[in-house]
Amino acid sequence: MLYQGKTNAESYFPPILGNGDISFAPDCEGTLNYSFEQYEKKGLSAFDGIVVRCGRRSNNNCRVGQSKLFSFGKFVFSEGSQIEDWSQELVEDKGYVQSTCAYKDGAKIFTKSFIHPERNIYAINKTFENVGKNKKFYYDFVLEGYSEAIDELTNILYAKKERDEACIGFRIYGMDIYIGEIRLCMNKEYKTEPIPNGMRFEFEASDGESVALFYYLEDNLESDDYIEALNTIKKKIDGRGYEGLLTECEENYKSFFALGYVETPDKKLNEIYKTSLYDLKCYTTKHSIPIGLNNGYWHGRYFAFDEYYSFYALLGANRLELAKRVPTFRADVCLETAIQYGSDCHKREETQEMAKFLWETGEKADIELSPIGTWLDHVFHMPVIGLGAFEFYEYTRDKDFLKKCYRMIRACAKYFTNYMVYRDGERFYIGKCTDLERLGAAVENPFMTSCGAIKLLECCAEASEILEIDIDYRKECRFIASELRKSLPVEKDMYVPHTGCTQKSIAVFAGKFPFHVIDDYDKKLLNAWEDFEENGEKYGNMYPMGRRISPWYACWKAISYARANMPEKAYHALTESYESAGVFHEMFEINEPAVRIKPWFTTACGMFISSVNEMLLQSDGKTVNILPAFPLEKGDISFKLAIKGGAVAEVKIKDKNLVHLCITSNGEDVTKNFDILFKGKKYR
After folding, report:
1. Which of 13, 162, 277, 683 is the most buried (most CB within 10 A)?
2. Which of 449, 450, 440, 438 has its CA nearest to residue 541?
3. From edge to edge, which strands make up the β-sheet containing 675-678?
4. CA neighbor of 229 nearest in space, from 239, 244, 219
5. Is it true that domain 16-35+48-258 has CATH number 3.40.50.2300?
6. Residue 678 belongs to what H/E stretch?
């Protein structure tokens, strides 16, 4: 997507680059010459122009802020005069950003930059026009980002040039002590001089010349010998050069986008889908998926509720390796702490192994990183943790993975059956907790949390049956889930967010997504949806701000309508999210004239991808339903998506006819193993 600077769009924010470890958003010069405050003054809330690295955080009690990601520097480029005109383009399927800047002195500079997908290398290449011969240019690199605390927490050990590398050593005092080195080099001769907290790079360039700068870093948290790791990176830079590294980047992205695709007659849908996948690739860390790998979005911490939506999108889009990281993180890293938080300290037999997962967690998952608030009384994130692990099994048929995760699924279920399920005579219900925050604290019998509990207990029961274990608890889960269904809050012949609720909430859609526990034609559900639609302008996002539905709420509706086989409503809800897309087709948390916050918002990206996936394809492991909720009259469609049952479906529809269908598993055609529906009717 190409953006012209003269457009001066109020929603413009630079496109992101990232490899799941380091991340930032380069400006039109490929550098980071901006701050959070500059965009906030323009009415857009995002994040600082700094390099951040996953897991390098300040202490929770530090005055620089709650578990913030440390800055690993920023770049500024100097041409010698001001920019007069510029354009910037994100090339998602190749993993780079390119731009053209025209300067008042007549110079024109073309910039192409990328973060290597497998190494912490940022490469920026500039090609010069109308600069004459041997004109001087400058890069300033500074290690800053917390001006009030740079001297306290970040110590620059040295800043020197050795051979053809500029080396900046650092020691940072955070949740760990991070000792490492940042290096920069260029593919031509350059001079350096020290500046406060960094170094200046001076070089010359002439008309038609291309000059590349490389930034790379490593520390003791990632490598026992970070110097050797940096030397290895330098050898790679010397061996491959800018063009070779760019080729590696392009090939990596080509492979990623080949795993699955969506092509519809709706070009905007296609572009938002592709950009959303790109967003998730950039921001998925080796641990899990934050809302954004930056300090503007809860400092890159992990929310189980939000990460589920990105996980589910990647699962359906056939990015299984990335998707797997989410339940793996919860089972391998977070579970023991969750059991400590949730289990009875007396270790009584009947209450052992209950899990209460943290609301916000870091990479170690050992302490709660959320500030104090009513959100700490959320429990609806635990059902999606259990559901996600089970759905990964459904999509992959990896029984060993299910066996590994069963302890986690059961511990989440145990927390509900022991602590959250109350009984009043014959009535079972979920006790007081915080449901969606807009509803306030301590609500009893909340609809969304109750639907989540039902789904969690049913997943636990089904998993135990597949694994042939835990018969008694399986029976208990199924009984309680059945009873909870009977007590879902109803008023005026429709489900309500909770008993006595005086406002409207997107929560009433949770009975279909993410918790598919209510029948398609349940009149109480349809009435609740209609009621919310009538009030969506006022209650259309989780904050009391804005005048239209937020993009991830719109997509929440779209998935629910898709699951209820309502194609027109699903498509309309999906297009509501279009209004909030940014200039690079990125999803915001909210993007409207009065409120513009959080571009490149992974939760909304995940919701959008899942909306499209479920409108095009649904499956249960036995039946594959093609186009259950996508208007056929829109035109020709093709896609490649994962299905439940450990397979991938590739589909082409032309002139309203299904002209190609191939379902494969491990390279084998397994189409015959599934019942096929096309537009709700049996295909064969």
Report:
1. 277
2. 438
3. 617-619, 623-626, 675-678, 681-682
4. 219
5. no
6. strand 675-678
Per the CB < 8 A criterion, the answer to whether 573 and 563 are in contact is no
Alpha-carbon distance 438 to 498, whole Å?
Answer: 12
Answer yes or no: are the C-beta atoms of 152 and 166 closer than 8 Å. Answer: no
With a cut of 50, which residues of the chain have pLDDT below it? 62-64, 145-151
- Give the SS3 label for residue 664: strand
Closest by alpha carbon to 111, among 96, 130, 95, 94?
A: 96
* Contact between 292 and 601 (Cβ < 8 Å): yes
> Beta-strand (E) ranges in 461-511?
490-491, 494-495
Q: What is the DSSP letter of 62?
A: -
Helix, strand, or coil (residue 621) = coil
What is the CA 6 to chain-centroid distance, rounded? Answer: 30
| Domain locations in the chain as residue ranges | 16-35+48-258, 319-490+507-521
Instruction: Look at the alpha carbons of 347, 351, 352, 354 in this order and tell me if their dihedral is positive or negative.
Output: negative
Environment class of residue 84 by beta-carbon count within 10 Å: exposed (0-12), middle (13-18) or buried (19+)?
Answer: middle
The tokens of 328 are what?
A: 């793996």
Helix axes 320-329, 399-415, angle to 10 degrees: 40
Q: In this predicted structure, what is the pLDDT of residue 587? A: 97
Element (DSSP H or E) covering residue 606: helix 602-616
- Give me 116's structure tokens: 């290597």
Question: Where do the H-state alpha helices sit in 76-192?
Answer: 150-153
Q: Which fold has domain 319-490+507-521?
A: Glycosyltransferase (1.50.10)
Q: What is the DSSP letter of 420?
A: I
The closest of 478, 532, 65, 491 to 300, measured between CA atoms, is 65
- Residues 308 and 123: their CA atoms lie apart, in Å, by 32
pLDDT tens-place string over residues 403-429: 999 999 999 999 999 999 999 999 999
| DSSP H or E segment with residue 39 | helix 36-41
pLDDT of residue 61: 59
What is the C-alpha to C-alpha distance for residues 31 and 99, in angstroms, rounded to an integer? 11
CB atoms within 10 A of CB 390: 23
